[in-house]
Design a protein that fits this description.
single chain; mainly alpha; globular; about 260 residues; 2 strands
Length: about 260
């Protein structure tokens, strides 16, 4: 991933007018921030997420009708909210609120898989932030809203972007049997997530993010190749299946995102 990011940075720097490459670079850097968080480098992930939030806000403001940009901004805002909450920094609630504002704007246009799954994830993060501040009522309202968005798409689905946040929402609301069923559904197709699986020990999960020492499905070294089952974020939304031992070369990864 680092190598792929470096290549895109060089190409973007070579032609700053190439908006396609510039946006691709920003998206890949956002995935780097997500991986840094999964590795436990919260400071590094926060620094990158803060920088990317500023850039996505600026670009989105210049192109308010570009809904894909707005969707990316939801992602970076919820990532920022989770990171700040994990570090006890001020501003997590504001970042979460911004993600929810953008979510409702997107859902008013279209309720497709991408907007529903990203919006539900933003609601789950906002609920955790609220729970961490002692506002259980608001937290549960956000988690119920996440399920309202996901449940129409959930029946029989193996789409990880729908099933995984639904498993978390059920667990957070104390519905552990429903969460366990969805976890097992994902495990049967070999899915391994970047974020921890939902906590099924009963009651709400941790207010925000992971606790020190949590195990996450991240390769031990960030190199040029990953196996198809090492990192859930590389699972195809088209449900493409690869042999478990087959590596995914970085230039092919766009098909799996």
């Amino acid at each position: 991933l680092w190598a792929a990011t470096a290549v895109r940075r060089l190409r973007a720097a070579g032609d700053p007018r190439n908006q396609t490459w510039q946006r691709t670079l920003l998206w890949w850097r956002l995935k780097v921030a997500e991986l840094l968080r999964a590795k436990g480098d919260l400071a590094g992930a926060s620094k990158l997420a803060d920088e990317l939030r500023e850039k996505f806000e600026m670009i989105s403001a210049a192109e308010p009708k570009d809904h894909r940009l707005k969707d990316r901004l939801v992602f970076v805002c919820r990532l920022q909210a989770a990171l700040w909450a994990e570090q006890g920094r001020d501003g997590a609630a504001d970042a979460a609120a911004r993600a929810l504002e953008l979510t409702e704007s997107l859902l008013s246009v279209r309720q497709n898989y991408a907007y529903v799954s990203e919006g539900a994830s933003a609601l789950i993060t906002a609920g955790r932030v609220a729970h961490g501040r002692g506002d259980l009522e608001t937290a549960q309202r956000h988690w119920r809203r996440a399920l309202e968005l996901l449940e129409p798409h959930l029946n029989g689905s193996q789409h990880w972007r729908i099933v995984f946040p639904a498993a978390h929402a059920f667990a957070l609301l104390g519905q552990t049997d429903a969460s366990r069923m969805l976890i097992e559904r994902l495990q049967r197709i070999g899915f391994q997530p970047l974020d921890p699986w939902p906590d099924l020990r009963g009651g709400p999960e941790r207010p925000a993010g992971r606790a020190p020492g949590d195990l996450v499905a991240v390769p031990p070294e960030i190199g040029s190749q990953f196996s198809a089952t090492q990192c859930g974020v590389f699972r195809s939304e088209r449900r493409a299946r690869l042999p478990q031992s087959q590596p995914i070369e970085m230039w092919k990864m766009r098909a799996y995102l």
